[in-house]
Specification:
Layout lengths: L17 H17 L10 H21 L12 H16 L12 H10 L2 H21 L11 H35 L10 H18 L3 E8 L5 H14 L5 E6 L2 E7 L3 H14 L5 E7 L6 H18 L4 E3 L4
Parallel strand pairs: 4-5
Antiparallel strand pairs: 1-3, 1-4, 2-3
Helix pairs in contact: 2-3, 3-4, 3-5, 4-5, 4-6, 5-6, 8-9
Amino acid sequence: MASQTVEPVSRPFDPQGLATRVAPFVGVLLIAFAFVNLKHDGGGSPNRIIIAGSVCAVIVLAVGALPWRILPSWTQTFPPLAFFVLVAVLIDVDGGSGSSFAPLALVPVIWLALYGTRGQMLVGILGAVAVFLVPIVWLGAPHYPPSEWQTPTMWIVTVALVGTVVHELVVEMRKRGAGGVAVASSDELTSLPSRAAWDERLPQELKRAEREGWQVSVALFVIEGEVEDATLRETTFSWASQLRGTDLMARYDTGAFAAAFPGCSLGSAMQLADRMREVAQGVSVFVGVACWDGEENHAALMGRVSAAAAEAREMGGGMVVPAAMA
């Protein structure tokens, strides 16, 4: 089975599920503003708090109002980068390098690690680097003395490490999830679709038949007794060679295989099923066939075809039996 590459979600601001994704980070912002002290020395703090509030409002409006679906994916790094401006202002209001708001620099990086691509996450890490290093280079003492470079450096290392680890964990979880889906949808021995895949596909076939106004018939092939794996693989291979391109066959149970024949009447499906029964070498096969009545659900249809297969088994001799009408 070919391996699957799982790309992280690259549009974190798509409307579906946006409120859930945003809520935790909005909560962090509200807590941060609740702890802002308006009495910092310097007289400029209230103005900087107004700037911080304005940036926050712009971010919220942008997240909710912009048509992210039609914008390039790289534009979705703008709100997290704007968040870094907000963090920088709050750190400055709180006194500089030793600010208790420094952990907020983790928020946009974690956001992008969870919901963005690796490239978007790296842009977030660069934003965090700017938050901690630019003030030291540009503003300097007294709030950002070069002698205190150790603290910003540790925050940069922490942000980069946390962002990278979270992103890799998310990617690994998605890979495992995709692998689980792939395994669940395919039978390991025969490589045919599994029962789970059949239960998903058959209702789709019935809806399509209703939409297109054509018939669809279903057959259930039951193999008598225990069969070696090699024989079972050969049998299913021979059956697959008889199918048309529009037909579907799946492993329905341990010794049972279901097939759907779109566009086939009951009579045509019985002829095809009998031909498939004959090509099976070294096994005894009993077959039940049913034609969808246009109204029953897939469970009712499978109930009729299963009953027909059971009747064929009771009759013996490798029979093909049509199902009773619904």
